[in-house]
Amino acid sequence: MAAAAEAGPEAAAGSEEAGPEAALRALAQQLGRAARAERLSEAAAPLSCLETVRRLSGLLRGARPREMAEESMFQSVLEILMKASSEVELACKDSIELVTPDTCLLLIAECFRCLRNACVQCAKNQHVIRNLGLIDVSVRLIQLLHGLEVEQESVLAALRCSLQFLGNLAAGNGDSQNSIWKCAFPDLFLNCLNHHDEKIIAYCCMVLFTCLNSEKVRELQDHENLNVALAVLNVYRKQLEPEWSFLIVTDHLLKCPELVKAMYTKLSNQERITLLELIMSRISEKNPITNDEMTVVWKDAEFLASCFQEKCRDVLKLTSAANMEDEEAIVTIRLLDVLCEMSSNDKQLKHLQTCPGLLETAVDTLRVAHPAGKQSTNIFTATHSVTADREISHPAVGFKSHLIRLIGNLCYKSKENQDKCRQGTVKPGKALVRKERLKRGDN
């Protein structure tokens, strides 16, 4: 019995051949001894731990070994990570090198791989790992790794694996999601979203998306937390991680009108264009909108209509060739695009038709833009001398037709708005309404 208890790597390898259950027991015992040796700072401990954890990581890829894993094994992993955390913290504080940098960092990465694999579709392990306090230890270690003033692959690997672990731990587990949020928000998310490594950014977005819900989204409105939402939008704009960041914005952030307003006021013009494009993508979806979602869309429509009314004259800057790329003007054009799309939906249209001053603003802007195209050859001229490529690609091309579309939509089946047009607010009122009716197929 004593010999079996003291069995080394060769015995563990033999157990693997005998079957996963025996291999798991042998490796768990071996890991416990290695963790104790690591705690006592024995010279060979890190290498012994690394080899054992690697074998465990491989074994835990299987569903059966994951289900058989016991709490004592995760306790050993916790002890190893706590010891490694102390070493990294000492290195950060005293600006010294790790005693065994490569081995220590490789061991950290392997421990996170082991935990990552153990959590795959296994609620039992997720529960045990969370209750042992591994979330708090992991988040602290991730933050410490950010503090290391080194740029080496072993640090990046440790960070990537740690985030993958948190993602798997959170998957389908509300309690783990809440615990991760409590420990990691906002600092860890901010650090990782602003990291230079695209894989770290991607895994961070995955964790953030998995943890978010309507209650947590509201926390992003707070002044000190808003930077997390802005960082996600910046990740999408730079195409560093378009898939997860797109889902975070469209499935969560855009469903909170107060957050949309808070973000919009803080964004640069380029970032506003990106946000408006994402809003356009969301409202263009053909999926049915629930009543709750419609309330959100109405609030967004009110806000965007007010932004358009405030900035609509900025587009006239484009009459000058020197201002052809004016970003404020392009933001206004994108606002008009979104309002046109919103007003093409009957449920959204009724709300926009009652927005104070929106119809009058659209008509006044059209009145000014039309003669501006006649005074000189510019982007508002019906036939102008710019190249064909420029005409097709510039966002301002079609601005007047989009204004006409918006006016026609606002007048569609709205006697009050039609009367405003008939009373001289705009001369071609009837024609515009008729044109929009034909587009809709309404006789």
Q: What's this, in brief?
A:
The chain is built from 26 helices and no strands. It is an all-alpha fold.
Characterize the structure shown:
- This protein is an all-alpha fold.
- Helix content is 74%, strand content 0%.
- The chain is built from 26 helices and no strands.
- α3 (20-39) runs antiparallel to α4, α3 (20-39) packs parallel to α6 and α24 (399-411) packs across α26.
- It is elongated.
- Mean pLDDT is 83; it is low at 1-16, 383-393 and 425-443.
Helicity level: over 70%
Sequence of secondary-structure elements: HHHHHHHHHHHHHHHHHHHHHHHHHH
* Category by helix and strand content: mainly alpha
Give a short account of the largest sheet.
none
Low-confidence stretches: 1-16, 383-393, 425-443
Distance between the termini: 91 Å
**DSSP summary: helix tally:** 26
Kindly estimate the percentage of residues that lie in beta strands according to DSSP.
Answer: under 5%
Question: Taking Cα atoms only, what radius of gyration do you get, to the nearest Å?
Answer: 30 Å
Task: Please describe the topology of this protein.
Blueprint (H helix, E strand, L loop, with lengths): L1 H4 L3 H10 L1 H20 L5 H15 L3 H6 L2 H24 L6 H18 L4 H9 L2 H14 L5 H18 L3 H11 L2 H7 L4 H14 L2 H6 L6 H12 L4 H10 L5 H10 L2 H15 L7 H21 L15 H17 L2 H8 L4 H18 L12 H6 L5 H13 L3 H11 L3 H12 L3
Helix pairs in contact: 2-3, 3-4, 3-6, 4-7, 6-7, 6-9, 7-10, 9-10, 10-13, 13-16, 15-16, 18-20, 19-20, 19-21, 20-24, 22-24, 24-26
Notable features of this structure?
26 helices, 74% helix, disordered C terminus, 443 residues, disordered N terminus, mainly alpha
